[in-house]
Design goal:
Helix content is 28%, strand content 28%. It is an alpha+beta fold. It has 2 domains: 136 residues, Fructose-1,6-Bisphosphatase, subunit A, domain 1 (Fructose-1,6-Bisphosphatase, Chain A, domain 1), CATH 3.30.540; 121 residues, D-Maltodextrin-Binding Protein, domain 2. The longest helix is centred in the first third of the chain and has 17 residues. The chain is globular.
């Protein structure tokens, strides 16, 4: 699949662009309107991705680019997060990644996620399936939550949003970068994850493509497939797991789903 080849090339270019910056000792600025930190590594990765990926007739949506709503007229769209997990990158925690998704008619059909700190590369498409570091991979086959490994947003755990799930018969592992969490789930390294707070399209598009390529399940909190290239890029929370586990996970999470709010602070929707 040509889109997947372009994704792989773009990830390599982004990793090279980030390489001069050292996680843990990098300077950071605050984005406008309190939208969290950004580094020169984020910006360098964004430039590299755009240079490799974007072609005539395609749209572009990136956390580090000004949104051009002309993308709404495009059937084919690149949705990228040049450095997902900037807080972890700044802190020197190896839970950050480059995330690239190819969207066609609102559906994420191919994606790539690379964690340069760990050397992990996840690539997948609905046409070809998923590879993890070049080898075929699948999401987990587990059918019960007992003994499962569930990855949770470190920020959400710190805010107390996971307290209602403590003490249940599965392990909760806090982690940065939702894109990285979704990639690990796609490759079968963890069993489930969910978030009850909204995320932007660039946070999750590549992970959604990977999970669906690997035979897993990922839905919004209403149980519907996630659609991309919306005017408002903020999506509801999501539930993701191996296909056999999904009904158990959504049954657990659904009682805690609240009616959506019109506005969300930075901390409630990032990571």
């Amino acid at each position: 699949m040509r889109a997947l080849e372009r994704i792989q090339e773009a990830l390599q270019a982004a990793v090279q662009a980030i390489s001069p910056f050292v996680s843990g000792i990098v300077n950071a600025d605050l984005k406008s309107e309190g939208r969290g930190p950004v580094t020169e590594a984020d910006r360098a990765s964004n430039r590299a991705l755009r240079n490799v990926l974007l072609q005539d007739g395609e749209g572009w949506l990136s956390e580090e680019s000004v949104d051009n709503l002309d993308r709404l007229k495009k059937d084919r769209l690149w949705v990228v997060d040049p450095l997902d997990g900037t807080l972890e990158f700044i802190a020197g925690i190896p839970e950050w990644c480059v995330s690239v998704a190819f969207v066609e008619n609102g559906k994420a059909i191919a994606g790539g996620i690379c964690n340069p700190a760990t050397g992990e590369v996840f690539l997948g498409s609905l046409e070809t399936g998923l590879t993890y570091n070049g080898r075929p991979a699948r999401s987990c086959e587990r059918s019960k939550l007992d003994g499962a490994l569930v990855v949770a947003s470190r920020s959400e755990v710190q805010r107390g949003e996971w307290e209602v799930f403590q003490g249940l018969p599965f392990v909760i592992l806090p982690m940065g970068s939702i894109a990285y969490k979704l990639a690990l789930l796609a490759a079968g390294h963890v069993d489930a994850t969910w978030t009850l707070t909204p995320k932007n399209e660039w946070d999750v598009a590549a992970g959604v493509a990977l999970i669906e390529s690997a035979g897993g399940s990922v839905r919004n909190l209403a149980g519907s497939s996630l659609q991309f290239n919306n005017r408002n890029t903020l999506l509801p929370g999501l539930v993701a797991s191996g296909r056999n586990l999904y009904e158990n996970v959504i049954s657990l999470v659904q009682p805690y789903v609240q009616a959506p709010k019109t506005e969300f602070p930075y901390g409630a929707r990032h990571l």
